[in-house]
Amino acid sequence: MTGGVLLFVQQASQRTVVAADRQAVEDARDDLLSLYRSGGAAALRGEMARRFRSVEGERAVLLLTDAAGRPAGGNLGAWPAGLSADGRWRIMSLYRVGRDEPEPTGVIPVRLKNGDRLLTGMVISNSLQLARIYEEALSVAFIMSLVLALGGAIMLGRILARQVSDIAQTANDVAVGALDRRVPTDGSGDAFDRLGASINAMLERIDALVTQLRMMTDGLAHDLKSPVTRLISVVEQASAQTRDDTALDALEKVHQEAQTLRSMLTTALLISRTEAGFGGDLLRDTDVGELLRDVGEVYGPLVEDSGFALTIAAPDALVFPLHRELLSQSLANLIENALHYAEGGDGIALSAALEDGHLLIVVADNGPGIPAESHAAALKRFGRLDPARGKPGSGLGLSLVEAVARLHHGAVTLADNGPGLRVMLSLRRP
């Protein structure tokens, strides 16, 4: 827009300067024509001589020719070739008498009575030079305005980027469970300050609601554990006292269901506490390879008894801040899931690697896997896919894994192992 304005000013300035010269030539033409009508060619030649002796004569261009084209007066040696006496303004290069170089000249040629012709003009080199000075000045002004505009845009962009970056960083922190994060505000009352205050108010409300929900879930799971534990104890005592096989079978089923319920409550309580951020301050630098080998040592015999082979791969001396107990429990859940659902497979692979500063832990099997459209459902709390309804479990295993990943500022992703399932934990440093 600035360039358009400056271009308009430049064109307007040039037109104004040239228009002033044109008006001067038109006035001189009118004066000479008036004198010619009253006094004839002799009076016209006398006026032309007088004008050459005056100050304005330094720029004047005049020529009077007879019907045969012979010069009768003026400071041009001959009538310009191809120039018709039509009375129109035009700019052309002409040689004045006594000049070695052509000069830009604005002329108006007219035809007189008896075939005489009169050319009235003015050297406009100074005007064109002034127009070029205007053009150069406006070009410099345009460049300076462009630099200033670019500098202002960069500064504004950095300010906006910093403001947006603060909001984005807060959103990322909240997304990984840090509900206490808030957008920085400076109290200036500008648009970003008001936006930050609105987002902070929303986060306060979300934090309060989530805290209430976690407290209710935590309290419910905690309160239910005691009666379930007492129920298990009563069933065990009843089983020890009865001799009826039918009653024993019924009590055994009740005992199994009660055990499952207690496991669900324990896991739900652990998930609730993990999502509430408990344990986040217990992240310690841990040898990842050693942790995987310890998990393999505990679950290796169970895996082999189930007809699978457990392989472990991790680079040496890979140290990462981890909550050892919770991550071990998560990996145990994933191995148990593979044992339960990887029918037709024969191997479970547990691996770890450092990629772009993130710790990537993968548990993969070569069983039937999970269809891609069911991955989201499998990660939901109490989410169990229809073919798995007859299997033991609570549907909380992957929920715990996801909660532990968020505690480590990461996420869980399910992928096709071709064949089988790959469960990937991508963990970030705090």
Features:
430 residues; alpha+beta; Helix Hairpins; Heat Shock Protein 90; 3 domains; 5-stranded mixed beta sheet; phosphoprotein; kinase
Q: Could you walk me through the main structural features you see in this protein, from its secondary elements to its overall organization?
A:
Pfam families: HAMP, HATPase_c, HisKA. It comes from Sphingobium chlorophenolicum L-1. GO terms for molecular function: phosphorelay sensor kinase activity. The chain has 430 residues and is α+β, with helices and mostly antiparallel strands. The protein has 3 domains: 2-129, Beta-Lactamase, CATH 3.30.450.20; 191-275, Signal transduction histidine kinase, dimerisation/phosphotransfer (DHp) domain (Helix Hairpins, Orthogonal Bundle); 281-427, Histidine kinase-like ATPase, C-terminal domain (Heat Shock Protein 90, 2-Layer Sandwich). Helix content is 55%, strand content 17%. The protein contains 8 helices and 12 strands. Strands 2-1-5-4-3 form a 5-stranded antiparallel β-sheet. Strands 7-9-10-12-11 form a 5-stranded mixed β-sheet, with helices on one face. It has a two-stranded antiparallel ribbon with strand order 6-8. A hairpin with a 2-residue loop joins strand 9 and strand 10 (358-365). The two termini are 48 Å apart.
In short:
GO terms for molecular function: phosphorelay sensor kinase activity. The chain has 430 residues and is an alpha+beta fold.
Q: What oligomeric state do these chains adopt?
A: single chain
* CATH architecture title of the largest domain: 2-Layer Sandwich
Structural class: alpha+beta
- Indicate the radius of gyration in whole angstroms: 48 Å
Instruction: Please write the CATH class name of the largest domain.
Output: Alpha Beta
Shape, principal axes of CA atoms: rod-shaped
What portion of residues belong to β-strands? 15-25%
Question: What kind of sheet is the major sheet?
Answer: 5 strands, antiparallel
SS field, number of helical segments: 8
CATH H level of the largest domain: which superfamily? Histidine kinase-like ATPase, C-terminal domain
Report how far the terminal alpha carbons are from each other.
Answer: 48 Å
Helicity range of the residues?
55-70%
Question: What pattern of helices and strands is seen along the backbone?
Answer: HEEEEEHHHEHEEHEEHHEE
Number of domains: 3
CATH topology descriptor of the largest domain: Heat Shock Protein 90
Number of strands: 12
